[in-house]
Amino acid sequence: MKKIFEICLGVVTSVGGFLEMGSLSTAAQGGAAFCLQLVWPIVVGTLCIIFLTEMAGRFAAVSQHTIAAGIRDRFGIKFFLLPFVAVLIVNTLVLSAEIGGVSVALEMATGLKHPWWALPVALLAWFTLWRGTFGLIEKGVSLLGLVTLSFVAAAVTLKPDWHQVAAGVLPSVPHHDPANYWFIVVSILGASITPSLFLFYSSGAVEDHWDSGYLGANRAIATLGMAFGGCISVAVLIAAAYVFPAHGITRVDDYHQLPLLLVAVFGFWGFVLFVASLAFACFGAILQIALEQAYLVAQGFGWNWGENRKPRDDPGFCLVYTCALAISAIPIAAGVDPLKLTVFSMALTAVSLPLTVVPFLVLMNDERYVGRHGNGVISNTVVVAIIVLAFVLAIVALPLQVLGGA
After folding, report:
1. What is the largest CA-CA distance in the chain?
2. Quick one: DSSP state of residue 132?
3. Which of 12, 74, 116, 139 has a CA 20 to 30 Å removed from the CA of 146?
């Protein structure tokens, strides 16, 4: 009974923590520009992250190592520095974008411009991490993120043509603006298959003291939680496809356009739901990414780490998330557009994928870490496909940023 409760709670918190600034903005842009044609990259990205999170939880439960610690232990510190630096840079940009997301929500609620909110938001996140526990962050904040299910309600209320939605699951050739089409595809995949998500998941499994008895629960949480989260992203795309073109919007280039997704369906309360969704979802992402920065550094260099420890017991760990929040708040406080930063950082996330996924695949086939719980043929085939996809994304992401993201 306890395991069933943990599975249900894990699935619920996965759903609540799935949608954030990256998934929201890329899905909204895809729906506005290409209607229902871009359901397929959300589906592909969701399937990839299901496999990667399941593997991350299985690796942590069996080996009692996080992925970062496993890479450092298996390949050595010199090799580890390559994915370490790449993930650190990308996470800093994504963290800045998420701080921008909360700041934009507060601007919408109060009228005070978003740069003024960046430092207070970072300070609130720091205080939550300093005083909170992993359970509070993992479950408490993510449960608040369930307000993002309002996008599902909006998509259903709009009564879309479900045959067209189903047709969008299959990859298609763009009818216009191919550079922008493929740039949004890369951005959606980058928002879905973000390394920080499965790296954080493995750290959380160790924080929660998982062992091999949790393998079934891990499989259920990874599959159901990520699948339902993907459904929310599809709902955002559906709402964008029906709402934005009807109001003459075919390119989302201003964050003030985004509330229309819910306002067009629910009126004033749609605005309230959007502000709450953006604020809670992005705040949860801020906590997760700031923690992941601290996990990455502490695990890579062998420091004490753990959100459940008191700050005096792991001062280096606390110093990292403190610095990460302070540094990431600076661009938003300086007036950088959070939407443009988000889209750019999602494309850059795609570039960093091979650096983490390739060594992770090696770990999942090393019996010294996973014993008889290593990858089977299907899992290895899927991960090889993800690696090939990741290399393609790494090659095309930056040129498409210039051609399609301008």
Report:
1. 58
2. -
3. 116
Asked if 27 and 171 count as a contact pair (C-beta separation under 8 A), the reply is no
Confirm whether 2 is domain-assigned: no
- Kindly list the distances between the CA atom of residue 105 and the CA atoms of 72, 100, 218, in Å, as whole numbers in the listed order: 39, 9, 33
pLDDT of residue 234: 94
From 251, 263, 232, select the one nearest 145 (Cα to Cα). Answer: 232
Rounded to whole angstroms, how far apart are CA atoms 18 and 14?
Answer: 6
Q: Is residue 191 part of a domain?
A: yes
> By residue range, what is the domain housing residue 326?
11-403
Residue with tokens 């009126």: 267
Q: Which two tokens stand for residue 265?
A: 């369906």
What is the per-residue pLDDT across 295-346, written as a single tens digit (0 to 9) for each? 999 888 888 888 778 888 888 889 999 999 999 999 999 999 888 888 777 7
Q: What is the DSSP string of 312-365?
A: GG-HHHHHHHHHHHHHHHHHHHTT--HHHHHHHHHHHHHHHHHHHHHHHHHHTT
CB 277 within 8 A of CB 109: no
- Cα-based distances in Å from 174 to 30, 36, 223: 12, 11, 30
Dihedral Cα 278, 16, 53, 188, nearest 10 deg: -30
Quote the tokens at residue 173: 């050739």
pTM: predicted TM-score of the whole model, two decimal places: 0.88
Task: Quote the distance between the C-alpha of residue 102 and its chain's center.
Answer: 15
C-alpha 125/C-alpha 115 separation (Å) is 16
Number of domains in the chain: 1
Tokens read off for 301: 């260099």
- Residue 127 in tokens: 């205080």
Q: What is the CATH number of the domain that holds 184?
A: 1.20.1740.10
Give the separation between CA 191 and CA 101, rounded to whole angstroms: 14
In a domain, 53, yes or no: yes
Count of other CB atoms within 10 angstroms of residue 230 = 24
Instruction: Please report which helix (H) or strand (E) contains residue 162, including its range.
Output: helix 162-167
For 127-136, write each residue's pLDDT tens digit. 999 987 777 7
CA dist., res. 355 & res. 67, Å (int): 12
1 part of a folded domain: no
Q: Which pLDDT tens digit goes with each residue over 28-46?
A: 999 998 989 999 999 998 9
